[in-house]
Model the fold of this input.
Amino acid sequence: MTDCLFCKMVSGDITPDTVYEDEDVLAFRDINPQAPVHVLVVPKQHVATLNDLDADNSALVGKMMMAAAKIAQQEGFAEQGYRTVMNCNDDGGQTVFHIHLHLLGGRVMHWPPG
Ligand code: 5GP
Ligand code: ZN
Done:
């Protein structure tokens, strides 16, 4: 997807502040952090929204979650705790249409979220 911001980061056209990368996912710091550590974990494969997951690509979500747990260890807040969030479409607050997992840590999170 040439017009997709996160695909451009995966391809290297835009260089994000990368914190983790493997065969399937790229993770980088959010430009507008909502916590002391705010990382976005994206699959290298373009999937627009959670609604577009299917039997062929749903394993990506497990890989994204595992990457988030590794980054939480790396960043030093795995034991204290952290939050992971995926927003879907307008009511969910999704603004970039390439699925991504928000990893938020370094402060106490509240519930319910806004
Ligand atoms: P969404 O609202 O779709 O769940 O999350 C999109 C996230 O992407 C937002 O938290 C926003 O701050 C982040 N974002 C938007 N543009 C950029 C960018 O150019 N670079 C980085 N690192 N993050 C971005
Ligand atoms: Zn994309």
About this structure: The longest helix spans residues 59-75. Residues 5-105 form a domain with the HIT family, subunit A fold (CATH 3.30.428.10). The longest strand covers residues 37-43.
